Every structure is written in C-alpha cells, then in structure tokens.
Amino acid sequence: MRRAQNDLGILREGDKPAIEGVLRRQLLDKDRENDKLQSRILTLQQQLALRPPIERIQEPEKEYKNLDLILQNERCMAELGRSTALDIAPSSSTFAARSVMGSVFSRGAPTPQSGTPDSSTPMPVSQAVVEATLTQVEQIRLLVLGMEQHLQNREEKLTKTIEHAKAQEIKCDALKKEVMATKVAA
Fold first, then answer.
1. pLDDT tens per residue, the chain (186 residues)?
2. 3-state SS string for the chain
C-alpha cells in the first residue's frame, strides 16, 4: 500500500509539470484573447470618435421634414391657385393660407384612442417636448408668413399680367378699328 502511495505521489509529482504547462497555455490563450479584445475596444473607440455627433445627424432629418412641409405647402398653394378666381382679395389669401395650415395641423395631430384614460387630465410634459413643440410652432409660423408673402407676390404678378392683357386688348382694338377703316376705305 505504501508503495502504491509512493507511486501515486510520483505520478502526482510527475503530473505537476504537465498541469503547469496546460495552465500556462490556457493563460497565454486568455492573454491573447484579452489583447484582441482590447485592440477591438480601441478600434471601436476610434470609430466612435470619428462618428459625427447625433445633432449633425438629426439636422438633415429636420431639414428634410421642413422641406417636405414646404413642398406640401407649394402643392396646396398650386391646388388653391387652380381652384380660385383671378381676383383674390388679400384677406382671403391669408385665410386660405391659414386653412391650408389647419389641414397640415390636423394631419399631424395624434388622434385620441378609446383605450386611453381620461384625456382631460393634464399629462406631465418634459422641457424638451415643450421646446420641440415651440420650435415646430415657430417653423410653422414662418412657413405661414412665407406663404402669405408668396401669395402677395403671386397677386402682384397676376395684377401686372391683367394690366398687360388690358393694354394689349386696347392695342388690339385700335388695330382692329384701323384695319376695318382701311377695308371700308378700299
């Protein structure tokens, strides 16, 4: 039995270098894996540093939304221009612009759902939401002002066109009388 213990002790002592070698290899593998992960972290941090800030990414999105709103406005204005008569009163153009904006507001406003709690109770609103809403209202106000200016310019252009047409009509009538007078004389 003692001999067996000695044999086992020798075997155990003989296994120590093999176990240490295995553990060293595992430690080296883990070190390599750790180095790879650290270099990956550095690469990702460098990529993140090169990435533009979120505000720069959101800026074109906001501009796109504004341009889309202006395009919708132009389409509405064109449709409104086709459907109205040439003698537009200035107050009606303002009314038309506001009615067009009213339709834009109604399209963008969320509809209340029947499953929600009482909608008459005020919900807490964050400062960011308030500022975003104020910014959007200001943009819409500027859009309405732009629409009114556009309508005024269009009105002036139409007035000039009508005046030119009336002048051409007078010239045409004069030429017509002249031609009739030369035909009668001949």
1. 444 444 444 445 555 678 888 999 999 999 999 999 999 999 999 998 888 888 888 888 888 888 888 888 877 777 776 666 444 444 454 555 555 445 444 444 444 444 444 445 555 668 888 888 888 888 888 888 888 888 899 999 999 999 999 999 999 999 988 888 888 877
2. CHHHHHHHHHHHHHHHHHHHHHHHHHHHHHHHHHHHHHHHHHHHHHHHHHCCCHHHHHHHHHHHHHHHHHHHHHHHHHHHHHHCCCCCCHHHHHHHHHHHHHHHHHHHCCCCCCCCCCCCCCCCCCHHHHHHHHHHHHHHHHHHHHHHHHHHHHHHHHHHHHHHHHHHHHHHHHHHHHHHHHHHHC
